[in-house]
Structure formats: C-alpha cells, structure tokens
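Q&A log
Question type: sequence-to-structure
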Amino acid sequence: MDYQLLFSAFTALPAHMPWSRQRQLHECLRGAIRNATLARGTRLPASRTLALELGVSRNTVLYAYDQLATEGFVLSDRRGTVVASLGAVALPDRLAVPLRTGLSRRTQGLSALPGSDMSVAFAPGVPSLGDFPVTLWRRLLDRAWRSLKPAQLNYADPAGELPLRTAIADHLRVARGALVESGQVFITDGTQSSLDLCARAFADPGDKVWMENPGYQGALAAFRAAQLKPVGIVVDAEGLAPVASDWLRHRPKLIYVTPSHQYPVGTVLSLARRMALIAQARNAAALIIEDDYDSEFRHEGPPLSCMQGLAPDAPVLYLGTFSKTMFPALRIGFMVVPAALVAPLAALLARSAPRGRTADQLALAEFMQRGHFSLHLRRMRRLYRQRRDALVAALEQHLGDVADVYGGSAGMHLALRLRDASTDDVRLSTRLLGLGIVAPALSLHAVGTRIQPWRGFLLGYAQVPVEAMEKLVKMLAAVVHNAS
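Response status: OK
Response body:
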C-alpha cells in the first residue's frame, strides 16, 4: 500500500478546513477503512515506518492510531495495528444510492404554498413587524428575567404560566365575549401546535374531521398527521354550509372552522349558522375547533363575539395566537377548552408536554395587564384599515373588470376571486412569485374531493405600505390581463 499517495490525495483540503496533520492522517485512514480501501485484517505499518514514509512526526501517527483504536476501527496487539472487521464494512457512496425513505403516506397530497418572505408583498399572515414596540418589549422581557427565581428555571406548569392564562382570560371576556376562566386556558407554541394537540387529544385515527373548503392547509396537515379523515365542507357567502346528508354520511368527531374571518376567502359565519353548528355538534358528540387567528382586526361593523361564548358549556375548542397581533417569532398561542375537558387535558400534558419559556410568558402577561396589548391593537387596526382601503381601491381600479374582492371586513388579508373559473391561478401565482410578489393561489386551498369554485389569490396587506399598493397591484393586474 502506497500510504504517501493515499495521504497526499486526502490532504488536498480547501482553505476553510484548517485541520492539523494529526487530524488529516486520522481522517485519511478512517475513510480508507470505511470504504474498504484498507480491508479487514490489513496490518498497518509500524508508527516509525509510516512517519518516515509520510514525512510527519511519530507522535502524529501515534495520535491517529490511538484515535482509530478508540473508535473501534483498528485493533492493537504485540505485533502492531490491524484493521478491525467491524470497521472494514464497505459503505456506499452517499451520492450513488438515493435515500429510500420520505414523508409518510398520510402527508401526501398536501399542496405546496409559496413561502412567506417577511419583506415581500402580499405574504399572508405577516403583521407590520416594524411597528411593534420592540424597545418596550425588550424592557419587559429583561424585567421578567431579572424576577425569575432558580426554581422557575425548571420545567414549568404544562398549562402555562398562571399570570398569562389569567391575562388572556380577562382579555377574551371583554374583547371576544368568551365565557372563560383562567383554568380553561392552556398555553401552546402557536396555532399549529394547538391544532396538533387537538388532533391527538380529542380524536382517534380514522375519525372524521370537517374542514372548510377551501380551507387552511396547516390544519389539513395536522389532521392528516394524526391519521384523521378530513372531509371538505363547501364555504359560501355565509361561511361553512353543511347539508343534512353530511351529518348522516360523514359524522364528524371534530369540526374545524375560522368563523370570524374564513381562511382563505374571508367570509363571516352567520349567527344563525353558528348557533345551528353548536347545536348539531352537541347532538353529534363532536367538538368545534374555533380558530380565531386574526379576529382582533375588525374593520367594518360591530365586533363579533366568538362562538365559544354563544352558549354555556359550548362544545368549542377556542384557539388564539399572538403571531398576528404581536410577531410570529414569539411562538405563543393558546387554547380555551370546555370546563369538563380541563382535567383530562391537564393530565395528558403533564405526561407529554412540559412547558418552558417562563420569562417570555411573564413578559407577555405584563404587556397585557398594563394595557400595552390593547393600545398596540388599536394602533394596528387603524394602520391595517388604511392599507386595506388602499389595496381594495387599487384592485377595483385595475382588476375590477375581471375579479371581485372578498373578506376585506376584517383581518390582515383578503381574497381576490377571478370571475373566470377556468383560470389557472397556480400558474399565475408562480409567475407573480418570479416578480417578487407572494400571492398564493386560492385553488391550492381545496380540501377533500368536492369541487370548490374559488380561483384567484390570497393577498396579505398588513406589511405593505400604502404608497406601495398601486405599483404592486399594477404588476399583479398585468399578469392577470396578459393571461386572459
């Protein structure tokens, strides 16, 4: 064996890998053993002999041999160093054999949506991050850290910090008409975390879950991952529209809705349908998952009460998040569960989900208790209303002849529905992405096998300045008109 040739080939390392000679020799020999260039039973040269051949010190060779022996690649005896049988198993080239595994079958069929680059219009779900009071938040966070006792550095209550749960309950009673006590509030890592928990805790594999069609793909992913069977229920101008046969043929265990601002099309579930859904869910022993993701931003009409507060002990799991009202990186959301489910859910979480991030939760509790949260919401409502108005005006001017606007009464996004139902909105969305505009296609939000007639785009406006709307909409309009 020409060890000089082997070593020389290996030591041609790029400049960003400044390994020592000891490390170079060790990696060279280990690689040769792993790919069977040095076969099982091969006796390596004596340390002095190899040092002379390679022009290195004997200590360099001794280091490499000792390291290989420690890792089990070689064996040492009175006669010298021998390649071990365990180390001589030939490993295939990583590039030659493709990976033979992948995502589970239950995740297949999920639509790929364009990424939400924080700096790009019209990425949905992104608040105006530059308008968040970072200095104030940093001060509250610092105060929370300084107040922590050593015991609070341990795992925390799986339900979350009591001051935050109390602040959330107080806010929901006033702002959302919820019937809630702090003990019913469970802190999560955001809406997706809440959905995963709902799917695991309140349904079994094979159970049916109703979803709005079109609907939120994040919820679809959570339900499929839990091996539930999603059933798409068509959405119309009054929201989710189940028919009598749906209750008979597709009896649900869970019903997922976004009643205050349907995602993605923005319709509002009427009061009559809300009350009927609560009554029918109770009769079917089903739970309603009410995702109230951006209802804090109501732009027209009186505030809407949440479904959870419409009836005592309503069969509703209420989900909320601070990703829209504050900032996504905070990663704090919450669930409100019926009183009868508090004890079993707490027991489940105690076994499976120890909580942390105590300082973040305490800072958020103070942010809410001192009125900063309500003040921030008022400021953002004014700002988002201005941006919504600018976007709607531009859309009506440049696309009013071929499309209609839906869902502008609340939230941080609206839907632009193209009147030509044969339009390939996915292709147009891809073209817009190439121009730096994130406008997810509405057809990608289809759920189940039922036809949903929505073709168009989901347009988030919270992070787009008023002065930029006209130019961006002109670009969007040019793509749409060229396609037609």
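Response note: The longest strand covers residues 229-236.
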